[in-house]
Hints:
The strands form 2 sheets. The chain has a 7-stranded mixed beta sheet, sandwiched between helices. It has a 5-stranded mixed beta sheet with strand order 6-7-10-8-9, with helices on both faces. The model is unreliable at 336-344 (pLDDT under 50). α1 crosses α2 (39-49) and α6 (153-171) packs across α12. A hairpin with a 6-residue loop joins β6 (130-132) and β7. The protein is 47% helix and 16% strand. It has a domain at 1-122 and 292-344: Isopropylmalate Dehydrogenase, CATH 3.40.718.10. It has 12 helices and 12 strands. It is an alpha/beta fold. The protein has helices at residues 15-27, 39-49, 71-77, 82-92, 105-116, 153-171, 192-202, 230-257, 259-268, 270-280, 306-321, 324-334, and strands at 2-6, 32-37, 56-60, 96-101, 126-127, 130-132, 139-143, 177-181, 208-213, 225-227, 288-291, 296-299.
Amino acid sequence: MKIVIDAFGGDYSPSEIVKGAVTAVNLIDEVEIILTGDKEKIENELKEIGYTGTKIEIVHAPDVISCDDSPTMAIRRKSESSLVKALSILKEQDDVVGMVSAGSTGAVLAGGLFIVGRMEGVKRPALAPFLPTLFEDKKTLLIDCGANVDSKPEYLLQFAIMGSIYVKAMRGVENPKVVLLSNGVEESKGNDLVHKAHELLKNCPEINFCGNIEGRDLLSGEFDVIVTDGFAGNVAMKSAESTINTFTAVLKQEIKSGGLGSKIGGLLLKNTFKKLKHRINYTEVGGSPFLGLEKILIKSHGSSKAKTIYTCVLQIMEIHKSNYIQNMREGIAKSNVIEGESDK
């Protein structure tokens, strides 16, 4: 199983990306990695780590697409960039099952559309991460979390269908509960987009629509798929991440500054805190798959370190083994609300 990784995407590239790739090939027998980027720099990182195996291939790509570049123009003009090289390998090589990049979200999305291509019938591919919840064995899918800032009601309907297919394939949930993110649970709440999307979702037989939810229910674990546009979804996801990070930071501060009793209590609860960190840490979940493309593309967090990259490799393996691509094609083809030509 071959997986291609953009070695120069993200804040800690190439060092942490290369470390993550090495971890993956060392711990997973069936995986081979293709790293794209400046060959000399990648080789230096491998030497520093001490890796001398044969399961990592390097494809030289001297250019880098930064967050300051215009995503569409960069994809078209920087053909020798690590991101474009990786996307081209994903598209052209049948034995490459998926790709990871921690680079510019806009460029990854543009490249996914222009180079990899969307499935027939898909109006707009969407980013769909699993979020931690109150239940240890339960994750909730948020779709879309940033791919489509300006959405139409019919896009949200298709997100609901794609999300349901993905959750069923990945989590084995036979009839996923789908909800729409709004500013109130009442059907009358929300803006014009939410009102129109609500009507479409309510009348769609392909999904198990359970109505609206508010932002406070995002991590409740009571639902399987949360549908929203890319703008609201991105704000919601980053707000949840910030809340989790703030909570853990404040907890540490209070334990350190609370005197001897607090410090003793902190030591007694050390194992509990470790379990809590494991449950709410986004690095344990992986990245956000770009649903609706012809192949598996994972957008990892921009601040991804080695462990997150390794987790993304595991995520691609799980998605590939779930037969998600074929399930998605069949699900879209069967859906009577997606028949006809997709938006250009």
